[in-house]
Amino acid sequence: MNPLFVGVDVGTASVRAGLFTENGEILQIVVKEIEVDNPEPGYYQQSSDEIWNATSFVLKEIVAKHGAERIAGISFCATCSLVAIDSTGQPVSICKSGNPKWNIIMWMDHRAHEEATLINETKHQVLSYVGGSISLEMETPKILWLKTNLNGSYSKTCHFFDLCDYLRWKATGSLKRSICSLVCKWTFVHNSNGNCSWDESYFQEIGLSDCLTKIGNSISFPMVDKHDLISEKSAMDLGLKISSDVRVGFSMIDAHAGVLGMIGCRENESNLAIEEILTTRLGMICGTSTCIMALSRTPVTVPGVWGPYYGVVLNEMYLLEGGQSASGKLVDHIVSSHLAYSPLLLELGSHGAVLDELEAILQKQVIPTGKHLQYLTKNLHIWPDFHGNRSPVGDSALRGSVTGLTISTSREDLAILYLATIQSLAYGSRHIKETMEEAGYCFHDVVMCGGLAKSSLYLSIHADVMGIPVVSPSCSEAVLLGSAISAAASCQKQSVQLLGILARMGGSCSRIHPDLTVKRFHNKKYNVFLKLLDDQLGYRKMMAD
User: Fold this and answer.
1) Which of 76, 122, 380, 492 could crosslink 404 through cysteines, CB 3.0-4.6 Å?
2) What three-state secondary structure class fits 105?
3) Rounded Cα distance, 227 and 236, in Å
4) Which long-range contacts (CB under 8 A, 24 or more apart) does 418-421 make?
């Protein structure tokens, strides 16, 4: 029998598992919601025990339907959230209340603002790998916050894990940390010159020299080291055979798994090899937040963009990572805050149905005029950084702004506000793309996946605004597929290039081309977008003490 592979993705609000064939076909997807604790503004927390129990649930559902015999490999990806575990393997509280249930500081938690500022004031050389300044969403500012504010919890913690590495540890007992998580979120130094280590001077300078024993020094690489077998206890937890020889693959941050799952998709008639596609394709993973990724053969440094990170997704390739801290979350926030939303939700029954209805309303509004629906936002402009700017400004203190509001509370007004929000996210994506291009990149297309990318309106607006075709993979679950590709790679008995597995499992795609008739309109709105940034910085200067 042909083997099957499981990809597990722990996102912001759910744990998902997907079962795939060796050709990348989806056989089953199971989802289990998980809780997010938001005790005060800027604080977001989760429970590792709850997440592992949810992982057990989704795996057991897959095994119940397809059996355990053909499952050859499993791999985990997750948000870049910080997990605290004591010497006995139990959770350590990271919250002010001391409740041990909450032992994960989530990726979108912004409590470590002061710590990130202090770290950036050092101007240490490792900051050059994160666009010149560390984000408060990364792990060392969060650990420093714990040491400063909850020293008892910090002292009690024996292991700090990125969430994807915690899951791999639970599955195997291995303390190996993924080069993907360490380099991208922990300031681990890895380059083509053979340097692969923590920079101890950085930890000494920021007051975390005693942390090095807590964060690990055994590293896992994609398609290089021998991958571990699942432990008997975890096999039982997950519904697999206790004597199982299931391999556990390289763990990744969820967005990076998305890159792996969609970067290799090709049109059926395309003769392009994957090698030709990799360095000219921009990747966007569009969910609660949006990650914008680019690969290169040589290191390229871009101000305000994280990286270049060596070998974190594909061996011998560098990765740049930009992003938007709130994208799907911003759409939901703006739409649900409008007075017309609650009646629509009551009538239609779900948030997704409301968004579909808003897109239909937009189409109805332009039928009498014959004009393109994009023009409906001529006098409505949004700066979308309600949760700070990750790239390319790299300023977590930036806030959102809207100009052109009226007192209307109609559904039509909400639809136009929804449209302007999507446009603003597209202008933010263009801002990142153009910053990368100024540093030497040349993009032929952009491939997109995630919840937002399921909207044809979202895809077409990005094509129009960014001025290049948008590629939509045939596999709608690129993050799960990327994790399954890692699982498949761990099962190869002989040395097999990861690119070969990508070619086999990557699937086909469709393409949306830019509408040139709205190019001038979007160029003007993009200039307004940039002016909103200048104005906000000007207001900040005026109000400074």
Assistant:
1) 380
2) strand
3) 20
4) 418/331, 418/334, 418/335, 418/355, 418/358, 418/359, 418/362, 419/362, 419/373, 419/374, 419/376, 419/377, 419/457, 420/377, 420/380, 420/381, 420/382, 421/330, 421/331, 421/334, 421/335, 421/382, 421/384
Q: How many residues are given for the chain?
A: 545
Chain centroid to CA 27: 24
**For residue 276, what pLDDT band results from cuts at 50, 70 and 90?**
confident
271, two tokens: 């003769």
Burial class, 138, CB count within 10 angstroms (exposed 0-12 / middle 13-18 / buried 19+): buried
Place of tokens 């910090």: 154
The answer for residues whose C-beta is within 8 angstroms of residue 516's C-beta and 6 or more apart is none
Interatomic CA distance for residues 398 and 339, integer angstroms: 26
Residues 6+ apart with CB under 8 A from 1: 69, 70
CB 25 within 8 Å of CB 499: no
**DSSP secondary structure letters along 234-279:** HHHHTTS-TT---EE---EEHHHHHHHHHTT---TT----HHHHHT
How would residue 270 be classed by pLDDT, with cut points 50, 70 and 90? low
Place of tokens 């937009």: 362
- Taking only the tens place, the pLDDT of each residue in 159-198 is 999 999 999 999 999 999 999 999 999 999 988 777 789 9
- Long-range pairs, 116-125, Cβ under 8 A, ≥24: 116/141, 116/396, 118/144, 118/206, 119/144, 119/206, 122/202, 122/205, 122/206, 124/199, 124/201, 124/202, 124/205, 124/206, 125/199, 125/202
Distance of CA 249 to the CA centre of its chain: 19
Do the beta carbons of residue 390 and residue 323 sit within 8 Å? yes
Confidence band, pLDDT 50/70/90 cuts, at residue 294:
very high
- CA dihedral sign of residues 454, 458, 461, 466: negative
Residue 530: φ, ψ to 5°: -65, -35
Q: What is the pTM of this model?
A: 0.90
Q: Of 33, 47, 40, which is closest to residue 100 (Cα–Cα)?
A: 47
Between 78-82, 369-373, 523-527, the lowest mean confidence (pLDDT) is in 369-373
Task: Find residue 28's DSSP bridge partners.
Answer: 19
Which run of H or E residues covers position 471?
Answer: strand 470-473
Alpha-carbon gap, residue 257 to 211, rounded angstroms: 28
Q: What angle do CA 302, 308, 313 make, to 5 degrees?
A: 135
Nearest by Cα to 198 from 207, 189, 206: 189
Per-residue pLDDT, 272: 67
CB within 8 Å of 52: residues ≥ 6 apart: 167, 170, 237
Instruction: Tell me 373's DSSP state.
Output: G
Residue 123 identity (one-letter amino acid):
K
Residue 218 CA to its chain's centroid (Å): 24
Question: What's the CA angle centered on 163, arms 104 and 192, to 5 degrees?
Answer: 135
> Which residue, among 284, 292, 257, has the nearest Cα to 481 in the 3D structure?
257
> Which pair of structure tokens corresponds to residue 171?
């599955």
